[in-house]
Amino acid sequence: LSLLPSCATKQEPLLEQRLLAEFVEAYPTASNPNGIVRSFDITAAEVELPLLDGKPLRVWAYNGQVPGPELRVRLGETVRVRFTNRLPQPTTIHWHGVRVPNDMDGVPTQSRPAIKPGESFVYEFTPKDAGTFWFHPHIRSSEQVERGLFGVLIVEDPAPPAYSRDVVWVVDDWLLGQDGQIVPAFNTRHDLAHDGRWGNHVTVNGRTNEVLALRPGERIRLRIVNVANGRVFAPDFGGLAAKIVAVDGLYVRTPFDASGFELAPGNRIDVDLMAGSAGAAISIEDRFLRSRPRRLAEIRVAGDPVETPRFEPPTRRTVPAWTAGSEVPVHAELALDARRGGPFGIEWTINGVAFQGHESATGHTGIPLVQGQFNHLRFANHSARLHPIHLHGMFFRVLTRNGRAVDEPFFRDTVLVHPRETVDVGVVPVDEGSWMLHCHILEHAEAGMMTMLEVG
Ligand code: C2O
Ligand code: CU
């Protein structure tokens, strides 16, 4: 762990003051509960479902459905989830991207162990941000998420923009064997030596043939969530007018063209999509692997035209530019690398350490972050593989890639670090606690690429 001292020169406090000032309005410190409690019951259990092209598939599911139930609440409402574990393994629910109280984060610790088979637990929190979030287990996740445990949590604005429709696409891939069932070998050497487990079937909302039927003139909010263990998607909208208005839940400063965005495991985008006029079917393709585009879904525009809702796309004007933040001394550098060894034969490490606390995150020496201050972190990928680095409990901004300043007009909770790439990010943690930082390629995480950020 290399913690570089932030040696104070005369100008730096000024710069840091400025960065903080730019941040203050960016997102709220506290939640603002309005007294309404939205209760949900969720049970995780094994079940057989007609998925992909409709053949029965044995999966692990929330409430017998894949994707799991879509939880929709409004900002200010309190979410209460009575969760029961009917799986053959302990599990938890992690609320990806949601700034929850530290002990509701679903990371197993000594004081809040995983939920054993047959047991129940009540998760309760009031989201602080509106946006597109998701939930999934945070123990043995490379197996549990792959088997079908994931769902979407949407926190709506107090007054949502007037889209014709709000549509969710959960994108995923599945590795099926000859028998048409999920290959039960997890964390294989092959997956660990590569970018995790990439499947042989790509699905949208659990189907290989998802069709979205739109009427001419419709303007929709399309929320895309990547729940795959390892696969990165770069959706191409086949010429439809498609602008990204939110990344990882939060609105962007300025909407931008959606094509080419790298949606890594964990990432979400909200797309402002215009149906245009009636016409042929439009194939929505994943072009992350440029030589091998894959069909994700189809959009068909047909029927009587509707009037296009006209409004300025929602934005978050307070997303700071922060490019100057790269001049602030690096607070902590995280070297990402692999080596032989460990229970799977390959370990993924952060600063030479493979995280050992998968069953309980207690007892690991984390990286201290200063609450309410600008922290400059560096992710240095020394390996030849992809690492989508995800932070719990906070949003961050990308400052540089390979030393070159970038001004992405948005916050993230997950950033894809390419092979041999160095990505610098700036973050102002406002929520106290021990927050996990890990690669969202779930096999890499399982094999050690995890650590804790200590905010306090
Ligand atoms: Cu979606 Cu710690 O993860
Ligand atoms: Cu990784």
From TrEMBL:
CDD domains named among the record's database cross-references: CuRO_1_CumA_like (cd13861), CuRO_2_CumA_like (cd13885)
GO molecular function, one term: copper ion binding
Keyword Oxidoreductase: yes
Residue ranges constituting the Plastocyanin-like domain according to the UniProt record: 50-159, 166-273, 358-456
PROSITE patterns: MULTICOPPER_OXIDASE1, MULTICOPPER_OXIDASE2
Keyword GTP-binding: no
InterPro entries the record matches: Cu-oxidase-like_N, Cu-oxidase_2nd, Cu-oxidase_C, Cu-oxidase_fam, Cu_oxidase_CS, Cu_oxidase_Cu_BS, Cupredoxin
Keywords: Metal-binding, Oxidoreductase, Signal
Gene Ontology CC, one term: outer membrane-bounded periplasmic space
This protein's name: Multicopper oxidase family protein
